[in-house]
Design goal:
237 residues; mainly beta; two-stranded antiparallel ribbon; 13 strands
């Protein structure tokens, strides 16, 4: 039951979330990663300066250096993993857990301060995230672009802002399908003209500020699929 959430800090072409867990924002990790990674690359400002997939020390100049996983997609966009969700989790502004890689069985999240230090200036449109559901129901990823700072305790991670406005798309890479405007405060790819209420759908915080729809929890969050995917199954492996 997993999902991965990632961030693309610079708008280059278009513009990241993974399997047995809900990777929702992946990035830096605790000491546990050192033994798993084996090799850590150089210190960089953000993943746009990465030269190969792997772990890097991130030095934004505004928060303490932290370890993060950087990965490049087939469109040559670089993504930083900032969250990995197993089943469902309780949103918090602080960092949660350690990241061992995408086969782990515990939720991981960078702190809001670390995520926003990489994103940069608030109110600048182009902050882009990828939600990856690990291919149980769909091989597509869900992409969200916003001008808002990341806030884990807000509905839809704060992507909609006070105007309930963000851009989104779904595909194997950001450039595969059209980007469309969303006017809601939660994340839901059903608003896309080419996505239906089936296994390709991603949504979170449907019925409350914090919500895992399949379990009816209003204190924990998860990502879910459409109605034909085992009645809105949690996005998992």
């Amino acid at each position: 039951d997993n999902v991965t959430f990632s961030n693309h800090s610079v708008w280059t072409q278009l513009l990241q979330w993974q399997e047995a867990v809900t990777s929702v924002l992946s990035s830096a990790y605790g000491s546990k990663v050192l033994s798993v990674a084996g090799l850590i690359n150089s210190t960089i400002t953000n993943c746009n300066f990465a030269t190969t997939d792997g772990f890097y020390w991130i030095d934004t100049g505004t928060v303490s250096n932290f370890l993060a996983l950087c990965e490049q997609d087939n469109d040559d966009n670089w993504w930083m993993s900032i969250m990995y969700i197993v089943d469902q989790y309780t949103p918090r502004t602080i960092a949660i857990g350690d990241f061992d890689g995408e086969t782990q069985n515990e939720t991981f999240k960078l702190s809001d301060a670390q995520i926003n230090a990489v994103i940069g200036t608030d109110d600048t449109f182009g902050h882009t995230y990828r939600v990856h559901g690990h291919n149980e129901w769909t091989t597509l990823d869900y992409f969200v672009m916003t001008a808002q700072a990341f806030k884990d305790t807000a509905r839809g991670f704060g992507a909609g802002g006070s105007d309930n406005y963000y851009m989104h798309s779904e595909g194997s890479v950001p450039s595969e399908n059209d980007w469309e405007v969303a006017h809601n405060d939660n994340l839901d790819s059903l608003g896309l003209s080419y996505i239906y209420n089936d296994g390709d759908r991603y949504f979170a915080d449907h019925s409350a500020t914090i919500n895992c729809y399949p379990t009816s929890s209003t204190s924990q969050r998860c990502f879910s699929s459409g109605s034909s995917a085992d009645d809105h199954d949690r996005v998992d492996s």
